[in-house]
Design a protein that fits this description.
By secondary structure, the chain is an alpha/beta fold. It has 3 domains: about 45 residues; about 220 residues, Nucleoside phosphorylase/phosphoribosyltransferase catalytic domain (Pyrimidine Nucleoside Phosphorylase, Chain A, domain 2, 3-Layer(aba) Sandwich), CATH 3.40.1030; about 90 residues, Pyrimidine nucleoside phosphorylase-like, C-terminal domain (Aldehyde Oxidoreductase, domain 3). About 45% of the residues lie in helices and about 15% in strands. The strands form 4 sheets. Strands 1-4-5-12 form a 4-stranded mixed sheet, sandwiched between helices. A 3-stranded antiparallel sheet has the order 6-10-8. A 3-stranded antiparallel sheet has the order 9-7-11. Helix 2 packs across helix 8. The longest helix is centred in the middle third of the chain and has 17 residues. The two termini are about 30 Å apart.
Length: about 450
């Protein structure tokens, strides 16, 4: 079977057979497909599209291109569940969701990523914690899941290696935006993790990859259909990303906000809504609650009783971090040397944010990567963000910049003043939970 013939079939708009797709995936792993050939097929897939069956086949083939986790002999204490977000600004939901679901009886081996573009990465946030092992060996991972019920880790080289190579090719060939390829990339890693249930958080808005409702809906439906077609029960929620989620953006600051959340302090209403609803979805899917009402009650109790905080502390300890991290985070987390208030230039109502640009401003501060080899300054970021719908007076704080030096802080202050919109009249508030997707017509 020739690579160029498979490329020609898709180039001409025809459907690829299972054998074609499996040949392509095998070639990604063993190198028999060149970079140019893989890029050509990716572009053909992007331009000509893929059927749902093609996408399922690609997902399954990439899943089985490497190790597929089998938890049957691990004697875990509950159903294996996970959540994935398509990325946003200030999105620290995973840090609370994993231990809260664990406190309710689930087991969460969460494979997370690093920051990409303007969006933050969960692994970068956990990288703030001294000693935390983001890529543990299998024995350590099992020990953490036994002790804490959750382990937030990075993708190992053994999981879905075909996806790792294909994503690198897509990243430099303008083929990232293909919904079928996005779907296969996300789900191949989740299927390889041996899950029994998955909830997808598909962000929509000016700070999301999917900036329109139509695109976000198409992506969510694709993820749900393909995951279910590949044997992984999956639901999705579209959630609002037209403003920073929570009150912070930046790695250390988000870890601190997550700890406050798990202690029941400074609970941002939108952040709480997303975290509890997605957690509840997993409890129902895992048979840990009879219905949504009971699931929300269980998650709320795990939060108010601080059981979620205890599971988080156990996870950090089991993965090499300090045993008292949750009690004394200030002893372990470095803080930025310069803090500067961003003052409101006028009085009025906060009516909007250029959320993506706020994420890029964080990258400029050093809190994200311009290229893969960059080192992140985990100390920098923004805290005390105002919320859309809040009234402010001239000179009152819109946020606080945490920066490495005064010049960077002043530049960020001027930037954010332009990115937060203040008007004379209050605007209608959009719900943070936009739409649930459980199934869709092909």
């Amino acid at each position: 079977m020739l690579a160029q013939e498979i490329i020609r079939i898709k180039r001409d708009g025809h459907t690829l057979e299972r054998a074609h797709i499996e040949h392509f995936v095998k070639g990604l792993v063993d190198g028999s497909w060149s970079e140019g050939q893989a890029a050509a097929l990716a572009m053909a897939m992007c331009l000509k599209g893929m059927s749902r069956d093609e996408t399922v086949t690609l997902t399954q083939a990439m899943t089985h291109s490497g190790l597929v986790m089998d938890w049957s002999g691990a004697h875990l204490n509950g159903p294996v569940l996970d959540k994935h977000s398509t990325g946003g600004v200030g999105d620290k939901v995973s840090l609370m969701l994993a231990p809260l679901v664990a406190a309710c009886g689930g087991v969460v081996p969460m494979i997370s990523g690093r920051g990409l573009g303007h969006t933050g990465g969960t692994l970068d946030k956990l990288g703030c914690i001294p000693g935390y092992q983001a890529t543990p060996d299998v024995v350590t991972l099992h020990r953490a899941l036994k002790a804490a019920g959750c382990a937030i880790i990075g993708q190992t080289t053994e999981l879905a290696p075909a996806d790792r190579r294909l994503y690198a090719i897509r990243d430099v060939t303008a083929t990232v935006e293909s919904i079928p390829l996005i779907t296969a990339s996300i789900l191949s890693k989740k299927l390889a993790a041996g899950l029994q249930g998955l909830v997808m958080d598909v962000k929509v808005g000016n700070g999301a990859f999917a900036d329109s409702l139509d695109m976000a809906t198409s992506l969510a439906e694709s993820l749900v259909q393909v995951a279910n077609g590949a044997g992984l029960p999956t639901r999705a929620w579209l959630t609002d990303m037209n403003q920073v989620l929570g009150s912070t953006a930046g790695n250390t600051l988000e870890v601190l906000e997550a700890l406050d959340f798990l202690q029941g302090k400074n609970l941002d209403a939108r952040l709480k809504a997303v975290t509890l609803q997605l957690s509840a979805e997993l409890l129902v899917m895992g048979g840990l609650a009879a219905d949504e009402t009971q699931a929300l009650q269980k998650v709320e109790y795990a939060l108010t009783s601080r059981q979620g905080l205890e599971q988080f502390s156990r996870m950090v300890s089991a993965l090499g971090g300090p045993t008292d991290f949750a009690d004394r985070p200030g002893d372990y987390l470095a803080t930025a040397p310069v803090q500067l208030m961003i003052d409101a230039p006028r009085s009025g109502w906060v009516t909007g944010m250029a959320t993506r640009d706020i994420g890029l401003a964080l990258v400029e501060l050093g809190g994200g990567r311009r290229k893969a080899s960059d080192t992140i300054d985990t100390r920098v970021g923004f805290s005390q963000f105002v919320q859309v719908g809040q009234q402010v007076q001239a000179g009152e704080p819109l946020a606080v910049v945490h920066a490495a030096d005064a010049a960077a802080a002043e530049h960020a202050r001027q930037t954010l003043q332009r990115l937060i919109q203040i008007d004379d009249a209050r605007s209608a508030l959009a719900p943070v939970m936009v739409q649930r997707v459980t199934s869709a017509s092909p």
